[in-house]
Amino acid sequence: MAGVLYVISGPSGVGKTSIIEGVMKRVKNLVFSVSCTTRPKRPNEVEGRDYFFVDEETFMRMMKEDEFLEWAIVHGYYYGTPRRFVEEQLRSNVNVILDIDVQGATTVMKKVKDAVFIFVAPPSFDELKKRLLKRGTERQEDMIKRLEDAKKELEQIPKFQYLIVNVDLQESIDQLTSIIVAEQLKVNRVIERLGFHKIFSDGGDSK
Amino acid sequence: MAGVLYVISGPSGVGKTSIIEGVMKRVKNLVFSVSCTTRPKRPNEVEGRDYFFVDEETFMRMMKEDEFLEWAIVHGYYYGTPRRFVEEQLRSNVNVILDIDVQGATTVMKKVKDAVFIFVAPPSFDELKKRLLKRGTERQEDMIKRLEDAKKELEQIPKFQYLIVNVDLQESIDQLTSIIVAEQLKVNRVIERLGFHKIFSDGGDSK
């Protein structure tokens, strides 16, 4: 599979979605993988753009039929990445970006060896709390759970390859863009993309 | 040493110097390591900016006194990287960029384990030949030698981490900038730079 899979993960409320939105506008040949979830839709969310909102019965059936690259229970709801879309894009040399929780990311680490794993961290816990409060879409008990989970999630950082501390949205967009561009320039990927002959040929095929 | 050493290498005439000049204008906290050479100065070159031009006797003395991080004979002339400058900058958390030949780069691979190695390749051999002719600073016999060496140098590409195929100068500058930014975001480097407490602290030190 010649496309590269970029897995963006980190605590709820850290700003992953905004960073990815900014990057999608700037980077070519990159698609976003829309997850399935049983979580209720937030007012600003759009079916099929932000998530596929499904009921538990549908989710269970998809799980049984091995339709997920990874799935996880996060804050009491199911989340899963539809496997077929990701595989088809990568096979067509299109790069794919996943926005998934930390549990899901560690599952993908075991399944997709050459994926790129990027953790987005808040500048501090206080800042994360502020952002969740500002979002105002969480019930109080959900928010406490998210903050507790965040502590455990931060412990997983050393398993990831890259770490973006999201202090400033624009800077974080620049940073994620740089990671995506740089990873395309890894020697093995360039040789796979261009073919050995292009680089090692002895003239005759110059542009 | 908390600074990162970026080693840019590739055949003569491929455009390394122009790419690096472009990057130096855009990236903060990055210094260029000026090499020593016994090669005659070209008309557009400036002592201390492009190279330290020294005679063979001086070069031999510096070699004996272990003043070089690496040295190599390229196209009949000596080239070497002054060790002390590089080490001091890295110790002061400043990132350093080296523009060295492929032999020298493979020497640094053995000495500096966490350096980042970037190969700059021409789009084709014909293109490389055109660029050397256009530069017009080489004697005919020097140019033939450079082209012969280039073939051997390209075989070393798989030892490098990144490969930039220099089709368009501006694009190559963007690519090298992205590599430098991305490498600063590697998990281990961010943790070393910020300190563990900054990322894992439980509030109280938010900005």
UniProtKB/TrEMBL annotation, chains A, B:
Encoding gene per record: gmk
Q: What is this protein called?
A: Guanylate kinase
Q: PROSITE patterns, from UniProt?
A: GUANYLATE_KINASE_1 (PS00856), GUANYLATE_KINASE_2 (PS50052)
Where does this one sit in the cell? Cytoplasm
Residues forming coiled coils: none
Upper classification of the source organism reads: Bacteria, Thermotogati, Thermotogota, Thermotogae, Thermotogales
Spell out the reaction equation it catalyses: GMP + ATP = GDP + ADP
Provenance organism = Pseudothermotoga hypogea DSM 11164 = NBRC 106472
Q: Where is the Guanylate kinase-like domain?
A: 3-181
Question: GO cellular component terms?
Answer: cytosol
Which residues does ATP bind?
10-17
What terms describe the molecular function in GO for this protein? ATP binding; GMP kinase activity
Question: Enzyme group, top EC level?
Answer: transferase
Q: What Gene3D superfamilies does the database record attribute to this sequence?
A: Guanylate Kinase phosphate binding domain, P-loop containing nucleotide triphosphate hydrolases
Source superkingdom: Bacteria
